[in-house]
């Protein structure tokens, strides 16, 4: 049984209300109260499981884990930002299959002394991002831990289409991207150096803006393979190249450098194209299309699929890291 | 990009291969290799998302978070046991809706120095438990953290039936349970006192044996409400009583005390019925049925639904805790 809401034993000295004070059920009540579930949520939070519509007889599902100090810092990002980012990382994985999201679940592990308002902010962020694609937070679980860990599961529907996997790229296809590249990396570079501006790139790091609708649009247009850019374009396209048994060659000059990235790059002495090639967390979509396919709005051709293996830039191997280094 | 498999920098001095050494992709390769996916897995691990069958146009979904030191101890349970328990907790939540599981996803956060064999054992346990109900581990994510956190998502199908929620119990219904009660609590009591036997109750704590098939069977038989006993029978039935707007009264004499529990209770000076009423983690199923419903095999009547609120035992409030105390 959850402690009663007026239990104060676990409050910190400054009267911050903590997770320990309200308990699991108190938190769940706070973050589910007065939320409006969309039509796809057939049964929302409050039972052993949720029930979500899967209209074409299949469900698309993925999970992403974000850890405080590894994927986010609460001195750099607000709890709302963290919630948005956790949802965005998953919703982009649904979009990358050519699917449309139908619901989110969250598995949360948090220290007992976590202020409830941090967790409420996190839930607000999850709901805000979910609202962009008309889905709800349909279920979850909360446990006590030493470090804040947010594990989000996203569900989606393919609307009767085939899933666009990583393995369908064929020599002759074009490679195209949709959404921001390098913005989050530029923002992280700024924050790492102790700055808080320019706001545009710092905000991009805090709150990715994946082009959710572009995923289904690419599927409809005939995309042969697709991936969301979470680790870095080179690193993620390497998965497509490997799964498809092809080489992907990018053209450096095909990347139009946004003025903001050029300015930040100049200030920090970094070639902004490197951020665009190796920066993750913007959750752009990268897809391959048969040649002469009319591309959906927002996609720009940046390279071609060829015979061979690996990812090259202008025919050459890229020097240096190709993206986010897991566990290093 | 994942570190190359022969990278040794993160190995511990005794040459244990760690998560940090093999990296995220190395771990995923190890735990997905040579696994056979059942028919419901339309697209398994290795892409942005998985695709799972949802034959009646709906998907049942739930998430449970297990934290090392809170929900399990690796000196008391093997990694395989932890994996089984994490899967069981979720699969029981699917069964408690009257649904049949279709797939599992896992969000894992683990310290970099975690031996890979611990995580392989955990994956083996997830697969072993999933195999009991013919489902696969269809996807997941791995992140670096200071504490081992296992967040499992289970998916299921209602096979065309309505979900059995917590809110359908009506005065006059009988309350029945299926599966073990109190065994895990007795095992925990033994372990907490520094013993490792009797093996039957210790094993019950390490590896719950939820009666998965009893959930759909109860739904088919006409169960009006159902819940899985994860926190303790009294605590969990309190959710049913609250959601249904009824009182639930249990009969203490209706609980047949297994000899094992009686023996352990005698040795430790505990009334075994208290374990049966308040012990969680066995993941028994508790359901209500209209009077005179022929109960499915394995269900035993232990009480009745009445007008009122709360849960009573022989008409009286239960003294002491009613189950697992979250965050206390």
From TrEMBL, chains A, B:
Gene3D superfamilies the record matches: PurM-like C-terminal domain (3.90.650.10), PurM-like, N-terminal domain (3.30.1330.10)
EC number: 2.7.4.16
GO molecular function, one term: kinase activity
UniProt: Mg(2+) 5 binding residues: 231
Annotated residues for binding of substrate: 71, 281, 324
Domain PurM-like N-terminal: from-to ranges: 46-157
PANTHER family: THIAMINE-MONOPHOSPHATE KINASE
Function in brief: Catalyzes the ATP-dependent phosphorylation of thiamine-monophosphate (TMP) to form thiamine-pyrophosphate (TPP), the active form of vitamin B1.
Miscellaneous field: Reaction mechanism of ThiL seems to utilize a direct, inline transfer of the gamma-phosphate of ATP to TMP rather than a phosphorylated enzyme intermediate.
Name by which UniProt lists this protein: Thiamine-monophosphate kinase
Taxonomic lineage from the root: Bacteria, Bacillati, Actinomycetota, Actinomycetes, Pseudonocardiales
Gene name of this polypeptide: thiL
């Amino acid at each position: 049984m959850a402690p009663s809401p007026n239990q104060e034993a676990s409050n910190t000295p400054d009267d911050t209300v903590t997770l320990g004070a309200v308990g699991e059920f108190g938190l769940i009540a706070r973050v589910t109260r007065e939320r409006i579930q969309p039509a796809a949520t057939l049964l929302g939070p409050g039972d052993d499981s949720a029930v979500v519509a899967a209209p074409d007889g299949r469900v698309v599902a993925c999970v992403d884990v974000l850890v405080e100090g590894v994927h986010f810092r609460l001195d750099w990002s607000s709890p709302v930002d963290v919630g948005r980012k956790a949802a965005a990382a998953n919703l982009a994985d649904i979009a990358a299959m050519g699917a449309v999201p139908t619901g989110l679940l969250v598995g949360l592990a948090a220290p007992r002394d976590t202020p409830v308002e941090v967790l409420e902010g996190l839930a607000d962020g999850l709901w805000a991002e979910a609202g962009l694609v008309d889905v709800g937070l349909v279920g979850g679980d909360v446990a006590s831990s030493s470090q804040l860990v947010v594990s989000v599961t996203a569900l989606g529907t393919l609307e009767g289409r085939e899933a666009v996997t990583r393995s369908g790229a064929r020599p002759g296809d074009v490679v195209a991207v949709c959404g921001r590249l390098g913005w989050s990396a530029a923002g992280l570079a700024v924050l790492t150096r102790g700055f808080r501006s320019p706001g545009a790139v710092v905000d991009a790091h805090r709150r990715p803006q994946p082009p959710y609708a572009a995923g289904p649009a690419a599927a409809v247009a005939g995309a042969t393979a697709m991936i969301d850019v979470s680790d870095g374009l080179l690193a993620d396209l390497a998965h497509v190249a490997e799964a498809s048994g092809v080489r992907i060659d990018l053209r450096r000059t095909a990347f139009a450098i946004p003025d903001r990235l050029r300015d930040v790059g100049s200030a920090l002495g970094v070639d902004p194209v490197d951020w665009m090639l190796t920066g993750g967390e913007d959750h752009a979509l990268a897809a391959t299309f048969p040649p002469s396919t009319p591309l959906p709005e927002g996609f720009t051709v940046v390279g071609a699929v060829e015979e061979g293996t690996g990812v090259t830039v202008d025919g050459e191997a890229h020097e240096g890291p190709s993206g986010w280094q897991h566990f290093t």
